[in-house]
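Today's session is about reading a structure prediction critically. Students often jump straight to the picture, but the first step is always the sequence itself: look for stretches that repeat, for charged clusters, for runs of hydrophobic residues. Only then move on to the predicted structure, which in these notes is written as discrete structure tokens rather than atom positions. Here is the chain we will use throughout the hour.
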Amino acid sequence: MVTTICFLEDPLQALKEIRRILCPDGKIIIGMLDKDSPLGNEYDAKKKSSKFYQYAEFYSVNQVLEWLRISGYDHVQVLQTIFHNPEEITALEPVKEGHGEGLFVVISAQKIFYRAAFQKRFFLSLIQYITLSMTATTVMATVI
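Below is the predicted structure for this chain, in token form.
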């Protein structure tokens, strides 16, 4: 989803639907303008005069990260770039981890596969039960 989330009517619902159709351990990649970056504030202020962004709703990275958490994503990575006014850029901009400085942010998040986590907990519980049963049987056999 590259510069799409700002045009969605219900971004949280969209993230939940994407998670639903992702294969187990699948990833979502979101490219977005960070409302909380210095340039993001400028874009937000000028969006009414823009043919492209006039209908956009810019979000902070923290808001999108919260939606991802609520929607069941994990293993989140955040990268940022475009630290200067795009009209003044003459060379390739660096890419840094995190957010808050760069205008453009890329977020990668992985679908949490609950069934695998449940199966792991189930098998661990089963092993603990068997171990306790064997211990109790050994104790009873020793006493008898």
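Discussion point for the tutorial: The longest helix spans residues 114-143.
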